[in-house]
Amino acid sequence: MIKIYEDERSIEQFLDLMKKRSEDDSKEALEAVENIISLVRAEGDASVRDFTEKFDGISLGDMKVSEKEIEEAFENVSTDIKAALEKAIANIEYFHRKQIRQSWISTEENGVMMGQKIIPLEKVGVYVPGGSAAYPSSVLMNVIPAKLAGVKNIVMVTPPRKDGSIDVNILVAAKLAGVSEIYKVGGAQAIAALAYGTESIPKVDKIVGPGNIYVALAKRVCYGKVDIDMIAGPSEITIVCDDKANPRFLAADLMSQAEHDKLASSVLITTSKALAEQVNDEIIKQLQNLSRKDIIEASLKNYGGILIVNSLGEAIDLSNTIAPEHLELMIENPLSYLGKVKNAGSIFLGQYSPEPLGDYMAGPNHVLPTNGTARFFSPLSVDDFIKKSSYIYYTEDALKALSESIMVLAKAEGLDAHGNSIRVRVDNE
């Protein structure tokens, strides 16, 4: 079911295969996205409606979700879902509230003052996958840190279903989390509308949220005109385990990521060949009862792997090379290895901290760097929704004390006007 790799060369070949999963940024797709963005920028709402009809098969009237639709969603949502959303919101808020930064100021004896001002972004766009899928958890993870950062206007876009409606769970999650306005638009045309603004959809400062290849490419093309969170690739998990790990748990966790997408990657790194074979047996057994069996099989066959190594230290080093989106340390005393982890989006410690706990309920954000970008990217956080301005205040005496050094550097760089700006202030004449 899932291939086992035991030698260094085959492991390296597998890792190369993983990296190529996201090389579907075909020239054709990029050209299509650039054309969509160009037309939406030029024609506004009319172009957004045209593309929605073309790609989603829906002729839109008013693109904005009405208050009546949101009220009806609350009437039709199950009490269990609503209660689960409220519990998740409480946990996500608790975690992200600890990330809030404060402005600061420093005053020196010579009268100099300097500091940093924290300013929330004015308007943020949140893309939520929709249509046949419904991810209310994605709403919460993107909206809550923005609200805690102080963003006043949060504009959500999500593709409509075939009947022109939006899933009630998504609408309820959006209302509970604090979304300002919602539009029934998806794909590259939604990203273009948020980046440039149309008659109906407001222009935003930043766009966050996952989507398909067209959404990802549109965010990449629009970056610079608008800020973005990251370019998200297919989902992935790496599990490091010792020979005492439960094979039932390991198999279940590998499949929990594989069901996302045929391009998803599930990797187990272990010191035990016997355990690897037990995990394979468990996958076959558990797979029969799962609704997304075909997707899981394709994902595990093409991009899944069990890597056999000599020690847990070697396993951690290999994991750092992969820099996975999700990392589970399914080992005894996982906290003793936490300090050795250098590259991972989110880390799950021990056998009762599975990745789906983080997806829905624990509190840390599930918008994470993929495809090795955990080497330099971080999970979505409150920091993603603020900007910082530094400021200084100098007295005349304080400026004079530094004037000669400033003018020396200005002269060295050939910037006479810089030096003159200082000179006119300190020259007695």
From TrEMBL:
<keyword id="KW-0862">Zinc</keyword>
<dbReference type="GO" id="GO:0005829">
    <property type="term" value="C:cytosol"/>
</dbReference>
<feature type="binding site">
    <location>
        <position position="418"/>
    </location>
    <ligand>
        <name>Zn(2+)</name>
    </ligand>
</feature>
<feature type="binding site">
    <location>
        <position position="359"/>
    </location>
    <ligand>
        <name>substrate</name>
    </ligand>
</feature>
<keyword id="KW-0560">Oxidoreductase</keyword>
<dbReference type="GO" id="GO:0000105">
    <property type="term" value="P:L-histidine biosynthetic process"/>
</dbReference>
<feature type="binding site">
    <location>
        <position position="127"/>
    </location>
    <ligand>
        <name>NAD(+)</name>
    </ligand>
</feature>
<keyword id="KW-0028">Amino-acid biosynthesis</keyword>
<keyword id="KW-0368">Histidine biosynthesis</keyword>
<dbReference type="GO" id="GO:0008270">
    <property type="term" value="F:zinc ion binding"/>
</dbReference>
<dbReference type="GO" id="GO:0051287">
    <property type="term" value="F:NAD binding"/>
</dbReference>
<comment type="function">
    <text>Catalyzes the sequential NAD-dependent oxidations of L-histidinol to L-histidinaldehyde and then to L-histidine.</text>
</comment>
<keyword id="KW-0479">Metal-binding</keyword>
<feature type="binding site">
    <location>
        <position position="326"/>
    </location>
    <ligand>
        <name>substrate</name>
    </ligand>
</feature>
<feature type="binding site">
    <location>
        <position position="257"/>
    </location>
    <ligand>
        <name>Zn(2+)</name>
    </ligand>
</feature>
<feature type="binding site">
    <location>
        <position position="413"/>
    </location>
    <ligand>
        <name>substrate</name>
    </ligand>
</feature>
<feature type="binding site">
    <location>
        <position position="189"/>
    </location>
    <ligand>
        <name>NAD(+)</name>
    </ligand>
</feature>
<dbReference type="Pfam" id="PF00815">
    <property type="entry name" value="Histidinol_dh"/>
</dbReference>
<feature type="binding site">
    <location>
        <position position="260"/>
    </location>
    <ligand>
        <name>substrate</name>
    </ligand>
</feature>
<dbReference type="InterPro" id="IPR022695">
    <property type="entry name" value="Histidinol_DH_monofunct"/>
</dbReference>
<feature type="binding site">
    <location>
        <position position="235"/>
    </location>
    <ligand>
        <name>substrate</name>
    </ligand>
</feature>
<dbReference type="GO" id="GO:0004399">
    <property type="term" value="F:histidinol dehydrogenase activity"/>
</dbReference>
<feature type="active site" description="Proton acceptor">
    <location>
        <position position="326"/>
    </location>
</feature>
<dbReference type="InterPro" id="IPR001692">
    <property type="entry name" value="Histidinol_DH_CS"/>
</dbReference>
<feature type="binding site">
    <location>
        <position position="418"/>
    </location>
    <ligand>
        <name>substrate</name>
    </ligand>
</feature>
<comment type="similarity">
    <text>Belongs to the histidinol dehydrogenase family.</text>
</comment>
<dbReference type="InterPro" id="IPR016161">
    <property type="entry name" value="Ald_DH/histidinol_DH"/>
</dbReference>
<dbReference type="InterPro" id="IPR012131">
    <property type="entry name" value="Hstdl_DH"/>
</dbReference>
<feature type="binding site">
    <location>
        <position position="260"/>
    </location>
    <ligand>
        <name>Zn(2+)</name>
    </ligand>
</feature>
<protein>
    <recommendedName>
        <fullName>Histidinol dehydrogenase</fullName>
        <ecNumber>1.1.1.23</ecNumber>
    </recommendedName>
</protein>
<feature type="active site" description="Proton acceptor">
    <location>
        <position position="325"/>
    </location>
</feature>
<comment type="pathway">
    <text>Amino-acid biosynthesis; L-histidine biosynthesis; L-histidine from 5-phospho-alpha-D-ribose 1-diphosphate: step 9/9.</text>
</comment>
<feature type="binding site">
    <location>
        <position position="212"/>
    </location>
    <ligand>
        <name>NAD(+)</name>
    </ligand>
</feature>
<feature type="binding site">
    <location>
        <position position="257"/>
    </location>
    <ligand>
        <name>substrate</name>
    </ligand>
</feature>
<keyword id="KW-0520">NAD</keyword>
<feature type="binding site">
    <location>
        <position position="359"/>
    </location>
    <ligand>
        <name>Zn(2+)</name>
    </ligand>
</feature>
